[in-house]
Amino acid sequence: MKRILATTLATAAALAVGATAVTAQSAKDFYKGKTVEIYIGYGLGGTYGKSATIMGEHLRPRVGADSVIVKSMPGAGGLKMTNYYANVVKRDGTAIILPPDTLAITQMLKPKKAKYDSRDFRWLGAAVRSNSLSAVRADSGVKAWKDLKSKAVPFACSGLGSQTCQVPALINGLLGTKIKIVRGYKGSKKMLLAMEQGEAAGINLTWLAFKTNRQAWFKSGFAVPVMQMGPTPDPELAGVPNLKDLVAAEDRPIVNFMSSLIAIGRSLAVHKDVPKERTAFLKSAFVDMAKDPAFVADMKKRKLQVTYTSAEDVHKVVDESVGMSADIIKRTNQILFGSAS
Question: Cα 54 vs. chain centroid, distance in angstroms?
Answer without folding.
Answer: 16
